[in-house]
Amino acid sequence: MGLVTGLLLLPLAPVRGTLWVADHLLQEAERQAGDPRAVQARLAALNRALEEGAIDEAAFEAEEERLLARLDSPVHYTGRRGGAS
Predict the structure, then answer these.
(1) C-alpha to C-alpha distance for 60 and 73, rounded to whole angstroms
(2) Are 77 and 35 in contact (CB under 8 A)?
(3) pLDDT tens column, 56-82
(4) Alpha helices in 1-85 (DSSP H)
């Protein structure tokens, strides 16, 4: 990159840095969301909430269905479709 190009792009540095951070946060969130251990822990917490009366049966079933769909999803650990790469 030439000096002139570098100087012209300098005002965009904060935007590029923010986009880089946002991209990495999204990748980590997807990785954690697809981690079967995290989903299983959330299912256990959901069961406890139902047993303690903190949620009703309808709320339990809706959340359980959403969590089980995550376990069936091809997104696991890496946050990328199709498994580890």
Answers:
(1) 20
(2) yes
(3) 999 999 999 988 888 776 654 444 444
(4) 3-9, 13-34, 36-51, 57-72
